[in-house]
Amino acid sequence: MKQQVLSCIETRRSVRSYEAKQIPDDMRDEILKAAVYAPSGSNNQSWLFTAIQNRKILEDLNEQVRIGFGLLSVAENDYPAKIRAKQNAQKEDYNFYYHAPTLRKRNGGLFRCFGEYVFSCSCIGFGNLLD
Question: Would you say residue 104 has pLDDT above 80?
Answer without folding.
Answer: no
